[in-house]
Amino acid sequence: MVVVKLKPFEEILKALEGFKKVFIFGCELGSGRCKNGGLREAVELGEKLKEKGFEIVGIKSPGGTCILERISFPGRELLKEAEKNSEVIISLACGAGTQLIAENVDIPVLTGVTTLFIGAEREGKYFNEYCIACGDCIISETGGICPIARCPKSLTNGPCGGAIDGKCEVDPSIPCIWYLIADRMEKIGTLRKLKIRAPFKDYSKSVYPRSLILEEEA
Amino acid sequence: MTFSEKLKNGKFIITAEVAPPRGTDWKSVIESIKPLKEKVDAFNVTDNQRSMVRMSSLAMSKLLLDSGFDPIFQITCRDRNRIALQSELLGAAALGIRNICLMTGDFTTLGDQPDAKPVFDIDSVQLIELAKKLESGKLLNGKEIKGSVEFTVGAVYNPFAGPKILQEWKLRKKVEAGAEFIQTQPVYDIRVAEEVNDLIEALGAVPIIGLLPVKSLKMANFMKKLNPTSVPDKLIEGLEKANDPAQYGWDYVIDIAHAIAEFGRGIHFMLVGKTSELAAFIDYLRNDSPYNHKF
């Protein structure tokens, strides 16, 4: 899931200087799941903006803002409606969703969130980064736990010398991921794999902007 | 005999750490280690240690070399990608810097410019592989290089980090990749020093055990906080009772150095303050100690 964080209201307010009619987009896919940009937050933002004298011409939170373009009718109509009736769009969707909205309208699109990472929801309370989309996935070799995303140094040959007492030296509030990798690989009987030297990682695969091209059926 | 020759001939090794200046005043650094000239076998020149900017470790290594010291050029993966690392190591070889100590490096946010972009393109094991590749006459991509490259390759080991099995496997990987000597984090316990010595030796590298004289109770407590199992209670208790904690901390480390001189292959002094005392101790080891035949 793409995890986002709402920007402080004051920051959103500052970005809206000079505008009056506002359309707000949330997104239920990522922003909604992490309670930082779904319908509820979009409505709350709308209320606060109304108090500051803005005219909220619409609030919508589609299932996935980044697929709005593909939903040929209802989605496109929604974007056209927003463009026609407002001076500015505030998007609470992730960076991808917000850019997609901007590509489809000829009015300013501002973001009300910061896109943080690809992560997992834990205990319904917090989100942890699990993947940095490096383009060269190695988790099959590390017990299904990613040291590229979850070790600040992205080490592949084992822990650094700062892994003291099970904690990461960079942030002692989190475990050194190599402890979790060792425990899990021992449990599933694959620990010995870590005795082998890891190959150099191919970072050309993470050079952005990347594309995925679906092969056409013959 | 140079550090490299001593290493190959089974002699006892004494190394010490020296940090390049924050600025360009390298002469005062050289001045500060003069009492140790021809006593310490080689000086590890740190690479922006603790992620704080200092003069280039390569430049300082060359200045040491020109001033009659044998440098161990330390280089980390924090600030350079594989292109820069190959380039720096070729530069070192061309400047006549033979000894290198390769490590991953402290993380950027632990230093005083936490907004810097961390690199970590490769890790310490791979950096050793990279150095060996250059020695074989090729770049990482297989292209041949002109001129010869010859290094004495070292790496580091922290006996107090975990998970223990993975730390030991990583150490093994470093030796398999080509590390000839291993310098350790500071040790304050003779039993630990002996275990680590045996572990490294069994893997086929020369162990050089790290020693960091504790100057005060505050420093010991700080180190205990960073690395709880490395600082034994008896060191803390001794410092509490001592009239002169700095002297106590020094004597404590010298006792361990004595023991290592008996069973081990080398010692590495980190943060040397007492240069004349260290020089006197080295003279004693070489000339009057029961282990003088090892030097």
Describe the protein.
- The complex is a heterodimer of chains A (218) and B (295).
- Chain A is of the alpha/beta class and 218 residues long.
- Chain A has 2 domains: 2-116, Rossmann fold (3-Layer(aba) Sandwich); 134-201, no CATH class.
- Helix content of chain A is 26%, strand content 18%.
- In chain A, strand 6 and strand 7 form a beta hairpin.
- The mean pLDDT of chain B is 96.
- The longest helix of chain B has 19 residues, at 245-263.
- Chain B has a single domain (3-213, 266-285), classed as Alpha-Beta Barrel (TIM Barrel).
- Chain B has an 8-stranded parallel β-barrel, surrounded by 5 helices.
- In chain B, helix 4 (82-94) packs across helix 5 (124-135).
- Chain B has 295 residues and is an alpha/beta fold.
- Classes of the chains: A alpha/beta (218), B alpha/beta (295).
- Chain A binds chain B through residues 152-166, 169-170, 176, 178-179, 182, 191, 194-195, 197-198, 200-201, 203, and chain B through 77, 82, 103-104, 106-107, 109-110, 118, 120-126, 129, 140, 156-158, 160-163, 165-167, 169-170, 172-173, 176-177, 185, 226-229.
Give the secondary structure arrangement, pairings included:
The complex is a heterodimer of chains A (218) and B (295).
Chain A: E1 2-6, H1 9-15, E2 21-25, H2 39-51, E3 55-60, H3 74-85, E4 88-91, H4 95-104, E5 109-111, E6 113-122, E7 126-131, H5 147-150, H6 177-187
Parallel strand pairs in A: 2-3, 2-4, 4-5
Antiparallel strand pairs in A: 1-6, 6-7
Chain B: H1 3-8, E1 13-18, H2 26-33, E2 42-45, H3 57-66, E3 71-76, H4 82-94, E4 99-103, H5 124-135, E5 152-157, H6 164-177, E6 181-186, H7 190-203, E7 206-211, H8 217-226, H9 233-241, H10 245-263, E8 266-269, H11 275-288
Parallel strand pairs in B: 1-2, 1-8, 2-3, 3-4, 4-5, 5-6, 6-7, 7-8
A few lines on this structure:
The complex is a heterodimer of chains A (about 220) and B (about 300). By secondary structure, chain A is of the alpha/beta class. Chain A has helices at about 10-15, 40-50, 75-85, 95-105, 145-150, 175-185; strands at about 1-5, 20-25, 55-60, 90, 110, 115-120, 125-130.
